[in-house]
From TrEMBL:
Residues 301-444, 505-593 form the Glycoside hydrolase family 31 TIM barrel domain. CDD domains: GH31_NET37. GO terms for biological process: carbohydrate metabolic process; skeletal muscle fiber development. Keywords: Glycosidase, Hydrolase, Membrane, Transmembrane, Transmembrane helix. Pfam families: Glyco_hydro_31_2nd (PF01055), Glyco_hydro_31_3rd (PF21365). PANTHER family: GLYCOSIDASE FAMILY 31 (PTHR43053), MYOGENESIS-REGULATING GLYCOSIDASE (PTHR43053:SF4). InterPro entries: Alpha-glycosidase_related (IPR050985), GH (IPR017853), Glyco_hydro_31_C (IPR048395), Glyco_hydro_31_TIM (IPR000322), Glyco_hydro_b (IPR013780). The gene is LOC115398333. This is Myogenesis-regulating glycosidase-like.
Amino acid sequence: MYQIVPVAPGEQHISGAAGGSPLKKKLAHEGRPLVMAGMVGCVLVLAAVVAWCYYSVSLRKAQLLKTELLDLNKDGFIIRNQGGAVVFSMTFRSGTLDLDSCTKEGSILSCTQSDSGKLNFFIQTVRPKDTVMCYRVRWEELQNKHTVEHAMAYNDSHWYGGAEMATPRWPVMIQGEEEPRPFITSDVYSNRNAFGGILERYWLSSNATAIKINDSVPFHLGWSESSRTLRFQARYQDSPFRPPEGEPAFPELSYRVCVGSDVTSIHKYMVRRYFPKPIKVPSPEVFKYPVWSTWALHKTAVTQEKLLRYASDITKHGFTCSHLELDDRYTADYGEFDFDPQKFPNASGMFDKLREDGFHVTLWTHPFINYDSINFGVAVEKGLFVREPSGELPALVRWWNGIGGILDFTNPDAREWYSSNLRLLKNRYDVTSFKFDAGETSYLPRQFSTLVPLSDPSTFTRRYTEMAIPFSERAELRVGYQSQNISCFFRIIDRDSVWGYDLGLKSIIPTVLTISILGYQFVLPDMIGGNAYPNRTTGEVDDKSGLPDRELYIRWLELSAFMPAMQFSIPPWAYDAEVVQIARKFTELHETLVAPRVLELAGEVLDTGDPIIRPLWWIANDDEVAYKIDSQFLIGDDLMVAPVLEPGKQERDIYLPAGRWKSYKGEHFDKGPMYLTDYSVDLDEVAFFTWVH
């Protein structure tokens, strides 16, 4: 008999023996949770395996993106010191890395893709010595032709280096927001916002890190006060930089970052490794005795009579002289190489008289030939000028003395023509040497061509500095780019006769410290009292004399006495007997105390490249206060100078780093570091201290 069993909703009615008994159905129903649990267990095991694999891959990727003390991510990298603290941070602003394209082989971590396409990116770790770790970084675009930009964070440290500036700060001070612009030599006297005539692609941090941008980079520099970063950018578009001939215009940003144990030792390493060194010390006479220039005193109105009177007055007032510098303008037209017979009717006799009286004479020179000079046609005919982009016509340029052509110092014919004219002058009148003025790339046309194409416009500056080599004993340059091996004096740009940081008295120490860090040690700090330019001279409105303020002149003189060389133009006797007496005192102090020490250090520069004029942190690199002092400096390691740089002051605060110090008054200070507040410094004094061993 069949038994009819009602079918519950959702159940399937199976008839006959195949349906099984109700007991079997009950058992089947009760076994389902076990199956489900098993399935869930399998899923969990599988998930655990997947998670483990993913974790292993992530771990391997994390290890892959580490190299020594550097951690890389898609947006940038950080570097730690041996103690684990972050000392350097770089952010990739123009693109992000595709980390899946990254591999690591030995000390090289490389990637082939970014979010904008193919690239050649690598970081190579190099340990040149136990206390130094370096990282070579390169980001080269292979598809994107626009820009590569990396932003370096300050990391609560102090940075130094870069370029001479019109308003220098020590350490570097980031103010405002500045889009990256070409990092090339410029005349900061005429363009106060530009980078100066002495610059290098090098920065140094109190965190014991340093960065050197490679020569091949079309380098632009900007900054951001809000994010506290320096912006390093490579680009060819809207730029004076050009890719090497025959190569595509893909920008490349490459640099070296080195980390050391302290700021002084890492700087010493970088200078020895990357900067050329001078091959000889310039004339000891220039270190010992003042240079006397006609410029600030006579400007372009100088004549034979005025020069002879100037020399006579130097002797009459009892001053020494390394050489007389006959500045602009002794020629009839700019670009000529002989004396204007109207102003110098007997140049040969003048030189005989000066030689008889014991004076060496140097002459002012420059790279321009004005269109009204007889030599303009000569240079056009010989093809000696920088040309317009087509290369067909000479390019006309405007400079502070008119309009003309500028000699192409990549052209061997132009170099020889210029040098031969200087040699003729030298031999005809027994001229001692030359003051090489200008040379900044800002005097090149915006678009130009040279015989040897310039990928980097500042190479023009380098070529111009080479013209001083045959005359280097007493030669003077005001520009420098990769020119540390030119063994002559480098003059800081013209100063105004004012007290402040804007090319005034306070700007001298930060400027000299900066160019010293850049490897230029034979520094000429321009003329005592400044250039006395109209409307840029403190006190001129009050006394109508046109002279720099008397107190300013004295304080300037005192500071200059502790520089590697001194340079007068406005003479002390233009004021009064007291100023003459103070000037004699400090020229003698320079000769007897400063010059012997400076000459000793100058000899060491040939081997080490170490600064002669040093910041206080050089001997106190664990002292936060020392990193910010911009009104004191060291000569070597053991002579510290603290001049008065404020008007109306006969006292100043002085910071003594740790150590035992003896003041010029004979006082001993053993419990450093310390501040000496309101330390008395009379008008005829400079506070200086020697380190007692």
